[in-house]
Design goal:
mainly alpha; 14 helices; 0% strand; 80% helix
Amino acid sequence: MAIFFTLFIKLIPLYGLILLGFIVGRLFKKLKEPIAKLVIYIIAPVVIFTGVATTRISFSTISIPILFFSICAFISLSIYYLSGFVWKDSTRNTLAFIAGTANTGYFGIPVAAAIFGNEAIGIVALALLGTTLFMNSFGIFLAARGRYTVKESLLRVLQIPILYAFLLGMEVNVLGIQLGKLYFDIAGVFNAAFIFFGMMIIGLGLADIKKFTFDFKFVGMSFFASFILWPLVALTLILIDNYTFHIYDANLRRIIMLLSILPVATNVVPYTTILKTQSEKVALVVFLSTLFALFYIPLLTAVFF
């Protein structure tokens, strides 16, 4: 119980930033887009580059993006199949899309840093690459029911700044280039800025929602995917690895487990808005899952760690 309250208290400031973002979003309507661009095109690439460049390269770390892309795709397809027993329309496509996502970036990096320290950022950055590739390729196909062609989907992936930050970080890491103290002093500022603005963006996104539409079955299936199916799949893979392959060490397994209990990705709201696929329901799921995670993450972290 002591661990639960310790982690709960650590998460409170992060939720305070979400609340701040919500208030700012209500007062200043046009701030979300410039802040989002600042994070996506400048701050996040630096954080990803630093994390990858300083992470010890091994088969286990390189496999992280593949692992999380695979988990996203598996859960997405599973929910698509299961929801077919309840819905016969595009609702199952929307559910499959959001079920395969996790807020690895704006939420995962700050939470992992709060629990494990800055050394976890590199691993989370690798997982973020996997979840982002899923969202911009396989996930979009499901959500739009084939609206995007293979070529269009590939072009969307190639426009992701963190992809190039990841590749550059890998090159620096493999070549053994030393970045120096001055760089790490500057990078520390970017890490703090990512946490600050990243959490604020969640609140800014919620502030944009004009109408919440509550659908008990829709919310229930989403929560089942995010908070039951995700950790079950991750735990199964961790146990298989523990008793057979031994690819991941204990610290990596803890981080993987943490990343499996994150709320739904905030970015699904603008995606579903553009695609006109029940964005009001999706917005409510994002809000409720983020709120629920405040209690759920400390609880499961205390149990598993």
